[in-house]
Amino acid sequence: EIVLTQSPATLSLSPGERATLSCRASQNVSSYLAWYQQRPGQAPRLLIYDTSNRATGIPARFSGSGSGTDFTLTISSLEPEDFALYYCQQRATWPPATFGQGTKLEIK
Amino acid sequence: QVQLVQSGAEVKKPGASVKVSCKTSGYTFINYGISWVRQAPGQGLEWMGWISVYNGNTKYAQKLQDRVTMTTDTSTTTAYMEVRSLTSDDTAVYYCARDSITIFGVVTSPPLDNWGQGTLVTVSS
After folding, report:
1. Residue B102 binned pLDDT confidence (cut-offs 50, 70, 90)
2. Site from B46, B47, B117 to mutate, A interface, most A CB atoms within 10 angstroms
């Protein structure tokens, strides 16, 4: 089973700042890595799939990069609604299509 | 617009079964799959499994495969997920999500691009 490790566990930033979230895989997942956002009390929402493709309706301030075992989600300039939980997920080798443990992006 | 509407909250006793439904609309049901993801209170996301509506193929998480069954009904565009032999560890919000399938080697869509609202399942004696 591929294990995804997200860092940091919590990221404290201010609106307007740049956020960089990391996801590291225990094995090569090629480009089959997605990112999801979850706001409190809501279902997750797909942000990025296949490492760098923005899902429909996702603002351009969200971008993804990486390959193999190291991936990054970048939010170029934080908006108030971006403070939430973020999860990465791999689909390279499944089942299971594992999720990372999450990064909480909180307001500083 | 694409919608996935799940059945309401359930309270079950240990050892019982629960079946959650996920009514879809706004897209061609048979061209996609459905994944199920659960989230225990205060915890992260756990992938449970996937079913292809196109051909009924399934993939389950190994820890659940003896207790979970995923099905679809194309006549009502509804997906179902049943968990048997419930324990307190199964207390969670259960989500369905539209997912991709692969037809002749081509992936048809992004993964988990639309989600249901979630169904809280509480297992308590």
Report:
1. confident
2. B47
What DSSP element (H or E) covers B52? Answer: strand B46-52
Tell me the average pLDDT across A27-33. 95
Q: Answer yes or no: is pLDDT of B104 > 90.
A: no
Question: Is the per-residue pLDDT at B108 higher than 90?
Answer: no
Write the CA distances from A62 to A17, A49, B2, B52, B121, integer angstroms: 13, 12, 23, 30, 33
User: What is the DSSP annotation of A39-99?
Assistant: -TTS--EEEEETTTEEPTT--TTEEEEEETTEEEEEESS--GGG-SEEEEEE-SS-SS-PB
CA B7 remoteness from chain centre: 11
- The one-character DSSP state at A15 is T
- Indicate the residue of A38, A46, A87 with minimum beta-carbon distance to B110: A46
Distance CA B63, CA B15 (A): 17
Q: Quickly state the pLDDT bin for B109 (edges 50, 70, 90).
A: confident
Round to whole Å and give the CA distance between A61 and A8: 20
